[in-house]
Amino acid sequence: MTGPGALILLVEDEPQMRRFLRVALEGSGYRYLEAGTGQEGLALAVQHRPEAILLDLGLPDMDGLDLVVRLREWSRTPVIVISARGQESDKVGALDAGADDYLTKPFGTRELLARVRVALRHAGPEVQQEPVFILDHWRVDLAKRQVLVDGKEVHLTPLEYSLFTTLIRHAGKVVTHRQLLKEVWGGAAGAQPLYLRVYMTQLRHKLEAEPSRPKYLQTEPGVGYRLRTES
Amino acid sequence: MDDRRPDPDALLRVVQEEEARERRAKLKVFFGAAPGVGKTYAMLSEAQERRSEGLDVVIGVVETHGRSETAALIEGLEVLPRRELAYAGQFLPEFDLDAALQRRPGLILMDELAHSNVMGSRHAKRWQDVLELLDAGIDVYTTLNVQHLESLKDVVAQITGVLVRENVPDTVLERADEVELVDLPPDDLLLRMKEGKVYLPDQARHAQDHFFRKGNLLALRELALRHTAESVDAQMRRYMAAEGIHKTWAAGDRLLVCVGPSELSERLIRGTRRMAGALGAPWLALYVESRQHLRFTDEDRTRLEANLRLAEKLGGETAVIEGAGALVEDILTFARDRNITKIVVGKPSRPRWVELVMGSTVDDLIRHSGTIDVYVISGEPGREPATPLIRRTITSPLRNYLLSALTVAAASTLASLIFRRTELADIVMVYLLGILIVATRFGRGPSLLASVLSVAALDFLFVPPYYTFAVTDFRHVGTFAVMLLMGVVIGNLTERIRAQARLARGREQRTHALYRLGQELARSSGSAALVASALQNVATQFQSQGVLLRPDEHGRLQAPPHPLAFPLNDQELGVAQWVFDHAEPAGLGTFTLPGARASYLPLKGAAGAIGVLGLLPQGAPRWAEPDQRQLLEAFATQTALALERALLAEQGALDKRRADEERLRNALLSSVSHDLRTPLGVITGAVSTALETPDLPEPARRELLQSAQEEAQRLHRLVSNLLDITRLESGALDLHTEWMPMEEVVGAALNRRELALEAHRVRVALPEDLPLVAMDGVLMEQLLLNLLDNALKYSPPGSPVDIKAWATGKSLTLSIADQGPGIPAGEEERIFEKLARGQAASNRPGAGLGLAICKGIVTAHHGRIQAVNHPQGGAQFLVTLPLGTSPVMPEEVP
User: Fold this and answer.
1) How far apart are CA B271 and CA B151, in angstroms?
2) B716, B778, B892 ranked by CB distance to A88: nearest
3) Measured between alpha carbons, how far is B597 from B575 in angstroms, rounded to an integer?
C-alpha cells in the first residue's frame, strides 16, 4: 500500500528521535512500527513487511550498512538512512549497498515526509515507467526520445539523454555517483565522476532556466545527484 | 712543606665524598702477593658469612682451579650462568654483565680483577665490568695480585723478570672501600706449590718455576704489604680530613712529568704516579709538541698516544701544548701556570759530546726551574727517537739533490767568470750565495750536499794548487770549515723555519676548523641544520663518516637518517647507547668495547649527555694523534653546546606556541559557551512557555514554536562551525579533491539556503567556459554557505548579493559581494581570525568562526581569500584557487 496508511518501520535507538518521527508520521496518516536495535529491526521487518524503513546509521548493536545489506538479501523494501552531517562516506556506502535515499540530521518534517513519499512512490506496484514524463517546464517523451522545454525541442547527446532518463527513472530519489556511472556508462573503464559532473553541467545549461541555480537537477555534494520533483 | 689550612670548598668536597662513599656500592679487594696465597678462599669464606647474615650473594666469576676446599665453599651460593662467546673456534664461557645487572644481587663475587674479557664482551677488562656493577649499586668482592697493578708493572718486571700484561689501573684499587691483604709466608706458599695446590693460568711451566723463586716471593710480598700500607694510610688521611683532624695536611704538591714517544716516558709516568701517590698529590703528564712532531714515525705517534693514555689511566691529567720556542722555557712556563712543585724528567743516554754541543735539556731545566724541584729518573737503554743530527731527512726528493748539485755547478761557472778579476773572498761569497739558495729552496739534505760540493769545487778550482784537492795555504782549510759550517747551519735554520711553518700551518688549520665549526653552528638555525653542519665538518676534518644520535623520550638513542651518516646495526647502536648512558667514550680506539666499527663520543651539555657522536673512519683513524684527539673533543663539546642551545630554543618556541593555543582555546571556550547558551535559552523558554501556559491561543503558540525553530537552526549552524574548526585545526581534514565545475558547487550552496535567500536577490554570473577546478565539493559548499550566511547577516533584506567568477591563466577567482555596511577599515585581515567579529555585530551571535573556517578551507586548497570593500559600498569576498591542468574529456559524438 502506498500513500497514507502505509506501514513505516523505524529503526532508531534515540528515544527522542523516535518520538518526533512517530508524531510526524502518524500526523500524515502513516502507520508506525518502532525498533530500538538493528536486530529488533530486522526481526520486525521479517514479521510485518513494512512498506518503507527509516534506518539510523548510528545504531549501537550493528553497523547500519550491514543491516542494509542483510535486508537487501531478501527484500526490496525502500530504505531511507538517517545519518549525521559529515558522514558522506557512510551515506554513499549505504546507498550503494541498496538504500534508496538519505536524511541528514538535523532535518525537518517537510524533508522527512517528502523523502518518504518519493520512496513509497518508487516502491509501489504501479512503478512501470510512464511513457511521458512531465515536470513543470519539461516534457519528456521516453518512447520518442524527445525532450521539450517550454514546448521547444532541446537536443541532447546520447550520454546526456541517458543521464537524464536515469535521473527520471529515480525521480525524487538521490542517485549516487557510482550508480549513475554504472547505469549510464555501464561501468566502462576510465569513467570518472568528472564526466558525470561535466555532463550534469551541460544538462543544466540545456534544461534549467538558471543553470547556476538549478531548480530540479540538484547536486548532493559528496553523494550524487537528485532530480527534484517537489518544491 | 708548610701546614696549610684546607680551603672550605676542599673540605666540603671531602665531606661530600665521604657521604657519597657511604651511599654507594662497596668494593672489597682481596689482595695478595702471588697466586695461590688463598685470596679466592678468603673471599668465598667471607661471602658465606654474609650470606648467613641474610645478604643476597651471587657468584659472578670464581675460579676454583679444581681445588676441593675452594669448591666446597661455593656450595650454597647462587652461581650466575656464564655467557658463551665464540673465540678462535671455541666457545668460551665468559661473565655475563647484563645478566648480572638484571639480577641485581646485594653482593657479587668477581675473581681475578685483572682478567681480560673475551672479544665480544662489553668491556675489554673485567675491572671495567666491576666498575659498571658498582655504578649500578651492586657490592663487589674481588681478588687481585700485586703484579697486576698498573703502577707497579715495571717494578714487578724488575723483580721477577716477567712483564705482566694484564693490568688494573690504580684508580680501581683506590676506589676500593676495603683492601684485605691475604698474606702467606713464601715458605708456606712454596710448600703449597709442591703439593700442587697452586694454579698459574697464564705462564708456561718453566716460567712458573722461575716466577716462584723464594727471592721473588719475598720481594712481591714486601711490595704487597707496602702497597696495602699506603692505601691504609690514604684511608686514614681521608678519615682525618673528614673528622677535621689536620696535622699533616695534604701537601699542596703538584707533580709534572714530561713525556714523549719513548719507552722511557712510560717508566717516568709510572714513577711519577708512585711519587704522587706517596705524596697524595695530583700530577700531570705534559707533552710539548715541537717541530720534531712532524717527523715522527707512526710507531712513535702511537707510542706517544699510548703514553698519554697510560697517564690518564693511572689517574693523572694530561696536557699537550704547542712548543713556542725553547723546550725548557715552554715546560717551565706551563709548570708555573699550573703551580707545579715538582718536575720529573728522564735522562736519555746521549753521548756527552752531543750534550756539550747541543746543550742538555735537563741541565737547563735544573738551572732555570727556580723554586720547582726537579727529579731525574735515569732510563734503561731502550729504543729512543734518533737525535736530530742523524735523523734521516725523508722529505727531500732526489730531484732536489740534483738541483743542488746544479746550483753548485752554476756557482762555479759564475765564479770562474770573475776569477781573474777578484779575490778569493769574493769567490767564496759566490759559493755561499749558492749554498744559501739551495738551503732556502731545497731542504737540509741538499744544502749539506751543496756545502760539501761547494767546498770541493772551491778547493779544486780556485784554491792553489789548482785542479787538486790539496791545499797549500793552511788558512784555506779554515775557510772551507766555515763554508761547510755555514751550509749546515743555514740548512738547519731554514729547515727549522720550514718545519715551524708546517707546524704553524697545522695548528692554524686545526684552529680554523674549530672556528669554522663554531661559525656554522652559530649560524645554523634549528637542530636539524646543526646536525647537518656538524656532520659535514666532521667528515671534512677527520676523513670519517659521522653520525649524530639523539635520545627519544625514553632515553633510547635514535639515529635519524641523514645522507652523511653511516648506518648503524644493532650492535653499534648498543655501543652508542652505552656511551650515552655512561657519558664516557667507547668503541674503536678506546678501552671499552674496542671491537666496534666506529668510535663514539658522548655529547655532554650543561645538564648531562644529550646525544652521541659516532665516527667511522675511512682508513686509519686520524684521531689517534693527541692533537687530533683534542680537536675532536673540542668539536664534540662545541656541537653539544650548540645542540643544547638549539633544542632549548625549539622547546621554548614549542612551549610558547602551546601557551598561545591554550589561551586561544580558553577564549574560544568562553565565547562558545555564551553563544550556545543564548539560543538554548530561547528554545527552552519558548517551548516551556508553550507547554506550560494554559489555554494558549494558537497564533501565540505558533510564534513561540517558530522562534524555537529558528534558534535551533542557529544552534545547528554554530555547532557545525565548531566541528568544522576543530577538524581543520586538528589536521584531521582529509581533502577529497575532484575536478568539478564551480557552477555545481555554487548551485548546491544556493539550493541549501533557498529559504533564507528568498528575502534577497541573488545574482549569479558564471561564465560558461569557466575551467574546472580541483576541489573538495563538500568543503567548498561549506565555504560558500559560510560566505553566503555572512552576506545575509550583514546586508539589509531585499538587497542584492552578487556571485561572480573569472579565470586568469593560473587561477580562478570567485567573488561574493553584498551591499551591507562593508568591512571596517583595517580589519580586512583580522576578520579571518577566530573569534573576530565586525564592530557592528558584537551583539550578533555566531562565535566569529565562519570566516576562519573559510580561510582554513581555502588554505587547505592552497588558495587565498581576501576581503575588500566594494567601491560601491558593501563587502566583497574574493576566493582565489589555483588552476592545474584539468583533464581532457573524451569527445562524444553529438
Assistant:
1) 8
2) B778
3) 10
Residues B559-574: tens digit of each pLDDT: 776 776 677 777 788 8
Which of helix, strand or coil describes residue B773? strand
Q: Which residue of A has its CA nearest to B804?
A: A212
Burial annotation B813-836 (CB, 10 A radius, 16+ → b, else e): bbbbbbbbbbbeeebeeebbebee
Strands B864-869 and B875-882: antiparallel
Burial status of residue B339 (CB atoms within 10 A of its CB: 0-12, 13-18, 19 or more): exposed
Q: In what order do the strands lie in the sheet with A138-141?
A: A132-135, A138-141, A146-149, A152-153
Radius of gyration over alpha carbons of chain A, in Å?
Answer: 18
Residue (of B174, B321, B352) closest to B256 by Cα position:
B321
Q: Is B526 helix (H, G, I), strand (E, B) or coil?
A: coil
Q: List B197's β-bridge partners, or say none.
A: none
Interchain proximity A213–B764, CB inside 8 Å: yes
Backbone dihedral angles phi then psi of residue B95, each to the nearest 5 degrees: -65, 135
Element of type H or E holding B666: helix B626-692
Give Cβ neighbours of residue B340 (< 8 Å, ≥ 6 apart).
B254, B255, B256, B284, B334, B372
Residue with cell 634549528: B526
- Distance (Å) from the C-alpha of residue A221 to the closest C-alpha of chain B? 5
Contacts of residue B581, Cβ cutoff 8 Å, sequence gap at least 6: B555
Quick one: pLDDT band at residue A55, thresholds 50, 70, 90?
very high
pLDDT at B555: 74
| Residue B653 buriedness (CB in 10 A; 0-12 / 13-18 / 19+) | exposed
| Positions of E strands within B8-146 | 27-32, 57-61, 78-79, 83-87, 90-94, 107-110, 139-145
Length of chain B: 894
Residues of A in contact with B781 (CB under 8 A): 221
Compute the nearest-CA separation of A107 from chain B (Å). 10
The rounded distance, in Å, linking the Cα atoms of B207 and A166 is 106
Place of cell 767546498: B455
What is the CB neighbour count within 10 angstroms for residue B222?
Answer: 13
B745 contacts chain A (CB < 8 A):
yes
**Which of B283, B301, B375, B275 has its CA nearest to residue B338?**
B283
Over residues B211-251, the pLDDT tens digits come to 667 788 888 888 888 888 877 777 776 666 556 554 443 45
Point out the residue among A197, A205, A222 whose CB comes nearest to the CB of B768. Answer: A205
Collapsing DSSP to helix, strand or coil, B432 comes out as helix
3-state SS string for chain A: CCCCCCEEEEECCCHHHHHHHHHHHHHCCCEEEEECCHHHHHHHHHHHCCCEEEEECCCCCCCHHHHHHHHHCCCCCCEEEEEECCCHHHHHHHHHHCCCEEEEECCCHHHHHHHHHHHHHHHCCCCCCCCEEEECCEEEECCCCEEEECCEECCCCHHHHHHHHHHHHCCCCEEEHHHHHHHHHCCCCCCCHHHHHHHHHHHHHHHCCCCCCCCCEEEECCCEEEECCCC
**Nine cell digits for residue B668:** 574560544
CB contact under 8 A, A158 and B892: yes
